[in-house]
Amino acid sequence: MLIRSIETFLKRYDMPPTKFGRLAAHDPRFVLDLRMGREPRSGTHARIVGFMRGFEAAHDKTGRENAHVD
């Protein structure tokens, strides 16, 4: 489930949900809407997962642990 992966990501990188929404979906309410039951389209889902993987890959280069993203 996407929201679980996002919540794990937010904790791991100590990122506020509104910042994640702006960076990943260009929507500061994105995470808040997911928490309220919003279901993203498949293209949006893929874009969000791609954002998290890219962010993690960039941080791996600095020696941080890689998080699992579904």
Question: What is this entry, summarized?
Answer:
By secondary structure, this protein is mostly helical. The protein has 4 helices and no strands. The mean pLDDT is 91.
What is the N-to-C succession of helices and strands? Answer: HHHH
How large is the count of helical segments? 4
Class by alpha and beta content: mainly alpha
Contiguous low-pLDDT stretches (5 residues minimum) are: none
Major sheet details: none
How much β-strand is present in the residues? under 5%
What is the gyration radius calculated from CA atoms?
11 Å
Total beta-strand segments: 0
Look at the structure and give the mean pLDDT: 91
Taken from the alpha-carbon principal axes, the silhouette is globular
Task: Determine the fraction of residues in helical runs and give it as a percent range.
Answer: 55-70%
Oligomer description = single chain
Distance between the termini: 7 Å
In words, what does this structure look like?
The protein is mainly alpha-helical. It contains 4 helices and no strands. It has helices spanning 2-12, 17-25, 30-35, 42-60. The protein is globular, with a radius of gyration of 11 Å. The termini are close together.
